């Protein structure tokens, strides 16, 4: 049996706000297999970003176990874990240091993790930019000089710099317009294939992941209410909450409209 790249077993997260307990995530279990894109979908407050933050080690689960390649992930992540699991944030401007050039931001993870020969690291930053569709001369520019889509490409390149296995994509296209969204999703799909990457794709919008995800986990109020393939989620959703999310997905073809109508029709 193939060992999952990432496995969550009975994960819960409780935050204490004053004298109140807030259960952000409750008893969640799922596997992420190597080479797949698992999308975590839900509205604000569903727990999806909490899952992302626990995966990254920003804070530990209250209960449950997380494993990576079959080994338990410690609450305090080792350098090898920080290198292997990388993040692409929602807002590409805030994720890049405005006082650093693009090249300096890309070189930083190479220096921190001692990747490659020091004499080649500056050249490597140019190669990373070209890999995400940007010219190498962008290394000398400041983040503010780039468009939103270009900055997000830089953020993706920075994640690639660490030669990571798992990339957590936290709403990576929600701050972009529709055309730029499509281009970034196309780039992510190409990189996944080329580098054999694994994605944990966090989003509130099912439409965004329909052409990139292999499976979808639907979250509502901290609980995972459904987990299935993209095809099954879009054509045979079982949970009422999932059916509601499907009803909000933009329609392209007549067949999709008929399916949407059948899923959102009020019972007689």
**Spatial strand order of the main sheet:** 6-7-8-3-9-10
Quaternary structure type = single chain
User: What is the approximate shape?
Assistant: globular
Tally the helices: what do you get?
Answer: 10
- H and E order: EEEHEEHEHHHEHEHEEHHH
State the secondary-structure class: alpha/beta
Largest sheet geometry? 6 strands, mixed
Q: Taking all residues together, what is the mean pLDDT?
A: 90
Number of strands: 10
End-to-end span in angstroms? 46 Å
Uncertain spans: none
Helix residue percentage? 25-40%
Q: Taking Cα atoms only, what radius of gyration do you get, to the nearest Å? A: 19 Å
- β-strand percent reads 15-25%
Summarize the structure.
This protein has 268 residues and is an alpha/beta fold. Strand 1 and strand 2 (20-32) form a beta hairpin. The radius of gyration is 19 Å and the shape is globular.
